[in-house]
């Protein structure tokens, strides 16, 4: 049976790998992202694309209208939008406290608010029973990110997912979080990283390799399957053992 899949941040990295996994099943996929040209180049067979800033309620409302018009029901909602904020405009002045406020606001809007607004806008369209809501967190939510802001923003998704699982469970809808470790071939690190830093991150794993977008996409794909129908309010780590389970 063909399902309707909505993926934010679906033009690159983990979101794109996830979109391809669902499209390979013959599912109908809607890709959301801020950059229309990136979505158009994604090349996911049969996918719909829509450019929107999911931090803005007005643009999320437009997404909801599009979903109602083109899909009707959402079987799987995947929140892959987010980032470290390195690609965002910097604070407008040099005051240290202003820079802190700016960094934390950007991290929250990119990683938490995008997911919350889209979920709240589409929750009444989730298939019941059988709907799935899947959030992308990070290993940083467990161990910090160096700056604090990104880790805190991702960690904020965890209690929201638990609350949402309780709220939607009676409708036969599950809610889960996937927390990746170091994943290569994404836009997360902007211009890239040094070989020394990469080596350190790989050395932290038990598997001796960096993660790939497909590793996370496969986990999301399985959580959206009937086989995972009794799994909800869980945080699944995909990091090669770099961080142990909690």
UniProtKB/TrEMBL annotation:
InterPro entries: KR_dom, NAD(P)-bd_dom_sf, Sc_DH/Rdtase_CS, SDR_fam. GO terms for molecular function: 3-oxoacyl-[acyl-carrier-protein] reductase (NADPH) activity. Its EC number is 1.1.1.100. Belongs to the short-chain dehydrogenases/reductases (SDR) family. One of its GO terms (biological process) is fatty acid elongation. It is an enzyme of class 1 (oxidoreductase). It comes from Streptomyces murinus. This is 3-oxoacyl-[acyl-carrier protein] reductase. CDD domains: SDR_c (cd05233). Keywords: Oxidoreductase. It comes from the Bacteria. Residues 3-186 form the Ketoreductase domain. The keyword Oxidoreductase applies.
